[in-house]
């Protein structure tokens, strides 16, 4: 996984050619990862290596009471990941922390404020990272890294599971831009903070009383699905000799995963 969160080099991604018109010579992917050979796909912990990394993520999240059996988040818990994307290959990546709404075999669902032109449009290359656990004696850390793209999904697929604070603050921000003259995304709220606070409180009260219409929610909030075509899983801790690192890639042109490969720790 040579590209994760190194998006200045995204012109190496084959999908980037269609977006940035990069030279094919620069777009050719090269795989420098060394692999271990093994008769059985087993983790250092002794468990079996999952065939589908998304299903593995869901099962681990479920064991930690972060999601239900269908992969939907459980209430207003802290369950986040980092995603990064460039609108142009020569610009710094737009990196943000987002809430998981659902993990399924098809991808990872999340929401953000709806925009007429999102950085996730046009199937731009996207990188993802998620870490769970603690690196201290008696514990271990699991880290997933992935590359892929995002696609829009219907809001009603995840709306029931979106935290209250996400809904109220996104809708209140949309209302502020509509109601406060010349208010824009990057404008300081200095001088109008009391008005913005009032809008947030009003929106929260409406949400609690089920008074927010779906039409308004759908105008303000966009649901997305991150669809990885490559993923890595790294597991380690102070009591282990080295990182246990596995790579997962899709079969070309399908949603099926190839057999996982056991990689060097670095």
- What structural category arises from helix and sheet content? alpha+beta
Task: Give the tally of β-strands.
Answer: 10
- Proportion in β-strands: 25-35%
- N→C terminal distance: 10 Å
Radius of gyration: 21 Å
Query: What is the arithmetic mean of pLDDT?
Result: 83
The shape is globular
Largest sheet: 10 strands, antiparallel
Unreliable residue runs: 1-32, 36-40
Strand/helix succession: HHEHEEEEEEHHHEEE
Share of helix, binned = 10-25%
Number of H- or I-type helical stretches: 6
Topology:
Elements: H1 16-20, H2 24-27, E1 35-36, H3 53-63, E2 80-85, E3 94-99, E4 102-104, E5 107-113, E6 126-133, E7 141-153, H4 164-179, H5 193-208, H6 214-220, E8 221-236, E9 244-249, E10 261-263
Antiparallel strand pairs: 1-10, 2-3, 2-6, 4-5, 5-8, 6-7, 7-8, 8-9, 9-10
Helix pairs in contact: 4-5
Description:
- The chain has 266 residues and is of the alpha+beta class.
- It has helices spanning 16-20, 24-27, 53-63, 164-179, 193-208, 214-220; strands at residues 35-36, 80-85, 94-99, 102-104, 107-113, 126-133, 141-153, 221-236, 244-249, 261-263.
- Strands 1, 2, 3, 4, 5, 6, 7, 8, 9 and 10 form a ten-stranded antiparallel β-sheet that branches.
- Strand 4 (102-104) and strand 5 form a beta hairpin.
- Mean pLDDT is 83; it is low at 1-32 and 36-40.
